[in-house]
Amino acid sequence: MTHNLPIPLSLLQPGDQGEVVQIQAQGQVRQRLLEMGFIRGARLRVEKLAPLGDPMELVIKGYHLSLRREESSCILVQPVA
Amino acid sequence: MTLTIALAGNPNCGKTTLFNALTGARHHVGNWPGVTVERRSGTFEHGGTTMEVVDLPGTYSLAARSEDERVAVQFLASPEVDLVLNVLDASNMERNLYLSTQLLELGKPVAFVLNMVDDAEDRGVRIDLPALELLLGGPVIPTVGNREQGIDELKTLLGQMARGESNRCRRIVVDYGHDIEGELAKLQKEICRDEQLEASMPPRWLALQLLENNVEAKRVVGESHASEAINQQLAKSFAFLEPHLGADGATLVAERRYGFAHGLVKEVASAPDDKKSPTAKLDAILTHRALGMPIFVGILALMYSLSFILGKIPQDWIADGFKALSTFASASLPAGELTSLLVDGVIPGVSAVIVFVPVIMILMGCIAFLEDTGYMARAAFIMDRLMHVMGLHGKSFIPLIMGSGCNVPAIQAARTIESPQDRLITMLVTPLVSCSARLQVYIVIAGTFFTPFKAALSIIAMHFLGLGLAVLMGRVLRSALFSGPSSPFVMELPPYRLPMLKATLIHMWEKGSVFLTRAGTTIFAGATLIWFLSRYPGIANREWTLEYQQQRQAVGALNLPTAESEERLKALQLAHESRIVNTSLAARLGQKVEPILRPILDPDHKRPEAWKDVIALTAGFVAKEIVVSTMAVIHQASEEPKEGERLSPLQVALRDGSGLTPLTALAFMVFTLIYTPCIGTIAMIRREAGSWRWAAFTVGYGLVLGWGLAWVTVAVGRAMGFA
């Protein structure tokens, strides 16, 4: 059993992995993120940050995606060692 | 007998390449009715059957939130479509299948193309085709679109389906699980109370969208007479599902769809091996923390040079050719209205259109190349932080920079921005970026009134002012026009691919020809209108024409050496044109609006002829560089310097006769930078934004902003003691 609490995706560092717990955004952003594969339990890995620190590149469902901090901060993930 | 096939798929799945391979050159690019989304359609023949293929915009989903998705969903649901061809990226199956689950629910027969199977094989993914066909309930053809592999098999299959020789499409249904299926059945029952609603789209599809909380679906239901019953059932379904399954409807539906996709991929495809892909190796350099930015700047510089330095060569040929044509026409035709229409109206008008084609084709070719390779998404990734601060999108950066070459192709380049809001704002602020045509005006004015060093400084300042204003206006327009949250930045970084030369060439040709047919007519009409304004009524004055002809004959009778005679004839022509232009409708307009412009162009009331600037500025509407040639006509002084002199006769005339001071000259430069985009840019904004409203808005805010900043220039300058 892990005792870690879910944290926003934006807090993960390049190389970290996590599992999606919940999307806290509503409306259009929520729907878009669901369609792109951010469903409960989906495994993701943060690849890198852009040269200016934002957006981040991550791998989910086997493809590469970039998200701004605005969006990544409303995705709760369970860090996976 | 024709069969209409809708080509559907995710962005970056190679759909357009496949479309080109299927239809070859036989295709047509237009817009979907009422929106600015590009519509590609074409035909091909197989075994005597003609089939029409319509390339839908690439979308991740059919939730009908964006313009692209609405277009796709409306067309897919229309009776026009006989068959849906779903293109899947073989190396990214799971996410691609999400859209497939929705396509299957729309009730049309669906056939599948498994594209880019070579990429998947390179990654060690083996796909069991028979199993895939079985699970998807439709035929699956493996292809490599950019090498035209599998295209013949695909055509054969489509031909057979069109002739009814093969019907391999079974309707398969994604199972949403016992609880959701139960609620779906109840919702469908309520939906079927309204026969019209039932006929407009498959009830199951509508029920699913309602569970997903889809705004568009709710709107459709709201118009039905059964809306009350449907909404009651929907509320009951939510009340049952959410506590029971621990999430809202949208999450549950998405989870089941991905569940289907995940299970399917697990069944038919082997896992990719772990070795580092070529894309990962390239990205280690191209989006590197320190190297990414300089590499991007280098690529941008290369693109800029190709477009505006290499592209200038054919551009100069075209301009010279038209100039020679107009010189020839004016020399060999009698002076008069028709000759003027041809020489000063039609020929420059056509030239103003065609001159853009080489640079548009080269720049669009470069952009197509960047898009097709996958680098465009990386460029946006690298620049997004900076552009986001300015209220823009990472992809806005390229149009803004290219705008300093020429605004016209830059606005077309904004097509790469998916979000309509971001695209519109980028288009509206790009004209503020100082282009190379405006540079010619600065050079003449600054060269006249400033020392060479200060002139260079002022010209650089103009470029920074333009960029700064673009950034500022981006923020202002964002908050003024779109109060809601900006569209989410969720951008795929597709694997790098080497595009086919053929695809890039097709793209270049499309952009060039679309520009000629759509924007060309507007530019031509605008040029003719400006000709009318700046020549009438003087050009129709027979006495003046007669006088001019007599003067020419008199010079001819003097039997002077050729060089001197030509010079005198030129002076006569300039005097004649000057007389016409200075009494033209544009001149009258100038006299009318002079009081408005006085604070910026004549603050000391010492310039009785300040209205003449208005003629030049009106003419600059056609193209900014025409401001200079019109000034030459107004002041009866050639714009070409004599040998050994720094200033041209025009510049001397401006310095000694126009009454402009260094300060008002600077204000004139500021006003020229901002006051209005040229007619080519306006035509392009109209085309790309889809309405005259935005084109008119750009002109309007340009005039106001231009006046305001020129006034600030004068006011601050005077406060600092300059004159």
- Would you tell me which CATH topology of the domain at 2-162 in chain B applies? Rossmann fold
CATH architecture of the domain at 2-162 in chain B: 3-Layer(aba) Sandwich
This entry's quaternary arrangement is heterodimer
The biggest beta sheet of chain A reads: 6 strands, antiparallel
**Could you list the spans of chain A in which at least 5 consecutive residues all have pLDDT below 50?**
none
What is Rg of chain A? 12 Å
Structural category of chain A is alpha+beta
Give the full name of the CATH homologous superfamily of chain A.
Ferrous iron transport protein A (FeoA)
Strand content of chain A: 35-45%
Q: Tell me the strand order in the biggest sheet of chain A.
A: 1-6-2-3-4-5
Tally of DSSP helical segments of chain B: 33
Structural class of chain B: alpha/beta
Helix content of chain A: 10-25%
- The stretches of 5 or more residues of chain B where confidence is low (pLDDT under 50) are none
> Element order, helices and strands of chain A?
EEHEEEHE
The CATH architecture of chain A comes to Roll
